[in-house]
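Q: Got a minute? One more chain.
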Amino acid sequence: MKLSQLKHWTRAGNGAIPACILTSYAGCSDYLLEVEYKHHLEPLKTESGDMVKFQSIEQVRELLRPLGITSVTLRVIDPYDEFSPDGQLSHCREDMTIAL
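A: Always. Here it is, folded:
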């Protein structure tokens, strides 16, 4: 989803605020934002198609608060936790709600 589409959606006034997932990968300093659209997560992109990256949650707040989005789900993914004790592939992921 392009940033302009998200801005248009939130300003449309239909009262539906999209769910936003802010993803942080362990060992990486950037955050990526995805927007839920029709039960599917769409990465937020610039008009040229590049992924929008954030260096801090403050940057996320500065972008989303003016659009009326007051919270995001912070999803922390640890790609280094590859195996569980029983030898099966583990999907180590933690979600928490962050107020903006």
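A: Strands lie at 20-25, 31-37, 40-43, 53-54, 71-77, 93-99.
Q: Perfect, thanks.
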